Amino acid sequence: MDFIRGTQFGRKPKGKVAKQEKKVETRIRDAELIILRRKQIIEGAIKIFIRKGFHGATVREIADAAGVTMGTLYNYIHSKEDIIYIVYDYVTG
Asked: Would you state the torsion angle of the CA atoms of residues 25, 27, 29, 30, taken in this order, to the nearest 10 degrees?
């Protein structure tokens, strides 16, 4: 899967694929800070997912790779599944 272009093997997807929306809740209210921290989390997660895959990765490893503490990370997401969602949204958006 070519995650940069969102296509498999360079082919365009057949038909229009509807993107499902999911709101990932956060405890933070500052929109600019949310964008900044989530980008850090996404970049850290991608590094870990490339090396270990989703199931092999721990939230602690993702937090470390993102340069945030576990507490900070959980202010911006609620679960490991939220991380994979925001990563997916980032690479396909």
From this structure: -100
Is residue 52 within 8 Å of residue 22, measured between CB atoms? no
- Please name the amino acid found at residue 40: Q
Task: Give the max Cα distance, the chain.
Answer: 42
Pair of tokens at residue 50? 């490339």
The tokens for 39 are 């980008």
pLDDT tens for each residue of 9-35: 455 555 555 555 678 889 899 999 999
The region, left, alpha or beta by phi > 0 then psi within -120 to 50, assigned to residue 82 is alpha
| Token digits of residue 63 | 């937090």
Q: Which two tokens stand for residue 26?
A: 């956060």
Contacts 24+ apart (CB under 8 A), 50-55: 54/80, 54/84
* Cβ within 8 Å of residue 62, ≥6 positions away: 41, 44, 45, 48, 73, 80, 83
Q: Which residues of the chain have pLDDT under 70?
A: 1-21
